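User: Hi! I'm working on a homework problem where we have to compare a predicted structure to a textbook description. Could you give me the structure for the chain below?
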Amino acid sequence: MKKIRHEAELVKAAILAGMKYGEERGAVIFEPTDSASEKILFIYRLLVHDKQIQPLPEDQVSQQSMRHKLAIWYSKQLPADHPLLK
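Assistant: Happy to help. Predicted structure tokens:
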């Protein structure tokens, strides 16, 4: 897995964008008590289901790999001159 600059910030933004995507789609209502790991898992599975991202082989699915996939997904939605991509 190639390290991404500003990955932690990208993951935080990806969680917010993924929550918005899931709620607008009508697939989920996130509760304030949901942990970040639960949100990451649900957003990852939803994006795979909607064919927004390529799925990982099941034996490689982990919190770290899902966070990485979400960071990549979100970074591709940003404009090329965005500060998180520099």
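For your comparison, note the following. The helical segments are 7-25, 36-49, 63-75. The chain has a mean pLDDT of 94. Good luck with the assignment!
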